[in-house]
Amino acid sequence: MTAQQVLSTRIVDLLQVPAQQRGLDWLKTSLQSAIELELSTIPPYLCAWWSIQDSTTTAATLIRSIIIEEMLHMGLACNMLTTIDGTPNITIPVYPGHLPGGVRPQLTVYLAGLSQDFLTDVCMQIEYPEFGPIALFRGRSYPTIGAFYDAIHDAFHFLNPTLTGHNQLTTIFSSIGQSLYAITTMDDVDRAIHQIKVQGEGTSQSPDGGDFGNTEELAHYYKFAEIYHGHELIQQNGRWVYEGPAIPFPDTYPMAQVPAGGWPNPPQNVQQLLNEFNMNFQLILTHLENAWKDGSEDELETAIGLMFQLTSPATDLMKISLPGGGGNYGPDFRMSAD
Questions:
Q1: Which string of b and e fits 98-129 if b means at least 16 CB within 10 Å?
Q2: Are 41 and 125 in contact (CB under 8 A)?
Q3: CA-based angle 218:12:203, to the nearest 5?
Q4: CB 3.0–4.6 Å: which of 23, 86, 145, 192 could bond 28 by disulfide?
């Protein structure tokens, strides 16, 4: 396969291209896949967060920090693409479904409220460590997200493309003490890729999320695992163990798993809330795409603000029981293009 033949956006296919044949088109395609991948994690994490009845609990705070960092990671991927004169296409997959790009194809990502099963089946699987020191899952045969970002890093250094600085967006995420920054040098590229990897899965030596504003933050995988185990992750006698202070599992709205095709024949009040939610989410995606198309900070700030305004219709849905039992409704993220 030559660089000119690279048309697939499947990450598993992109990684089959020999390193010496990964040209600028390969890099742009890979960064677009990275954008889709980062954005695809946000809806399931939002459902988990919204389903927690008390937003001040430790579990809610942990998940909210993960969501904001995923937004930051998507922004960094967009900045890496626009600085090499690419244009991000902001889309999300249909749920339930696979992660974009064919990463970990055995994983089916679905939307549901927070539960022990949702943590192990979805959240922790998405953030599965490439070389995690205390990984719960072993024996992968397909690339992890970390392995994919390694390939993007290597391609940047092999090609050494001109970094134009076009349409670079920046914003401050004050709640996590971090900022979206411009990509104008190769050092910026290295920093961005390292940050995305380490905040998601940690390093081969540590589950720490790196020094990006808060040195005490764990990587996403281990934050989810703390909620699952019900205790903070601490180091004892050179070993990482979930034996720190307790993290009580929070009270949640029992949002059921959204079925393929969305909720069947929902009552009128549910349909109205779904329409309101999906219309606003589609508007967010439009603002995000326009932001990097035009280099508009205003468009970006509008999108971020609208994201958190989705809470009301989402939680209203989660308070309505399904007619046949088995849990409650919740947002389905069904876009008009479906």
A1: bbbbbbbeeeebbbbbbbeebbebbbbbbbbb
A2: no
A3: 20
A4: 86
Indicate the number of domains in the chain. Answer: 1
- Of 22 and 332, the structure prediction assigns the larger pLDDT to 332
Provide the residue type at 217 as one letter: E
Q: What CATH number has the domain bearing residue 164? A: 1.20.1260.10
Rounded to whole angstroms, the Cα distance separating 46 from 114 reads 10
> Do residues 308 and 235 touch, judged by C-beta distance below 8 A?
no
pLDDT tens for 186-231 read 999 999 998 888 887 655 445 654 554 444 578 888 899 999 999 9
User: Domain range spanning residue 121?
Assistant: 3-258
Q: Is 7 exposed, middle or buried (0-12, 13-18, 19+ CB in 10 A)?
A: exposed
Axis-axis angle for helices 58-82, 220-229 (nearest 10): 160
Backbone angles phi, psi at 199, to 5 degrees: -70, -25
Chain segment 164-187, per-residue pLDDT in tens = 999 999 987 766 678 899 999 999
Q: How many CB atoms lie within 10 A of CB 150?
A: 16
Structural domain includes residue 45: yes
Measured CA to CA, the distance from residue 136 to residue 130 in angstroms comes to: 12
Task: Give burial (CB, 10 Å; 0-12/13-18/19+) of 75.
Answer: buried
- The residue that leads in pLDDT, 52 or 92, is 52
Classify strands 178-180 and 171-173 as parallel, antiparallel or unpaired: antiparallel
Tell me whether residue 269 is in a domain: no
Does 67 reside within a domain? yes
| DSSP structure string for 50-90 | HTBS-TTSHHHHHHHHHHHHHHHHHHHHHHHHHTTT-----
Whether 216 maps to a domain, the answer reads yes
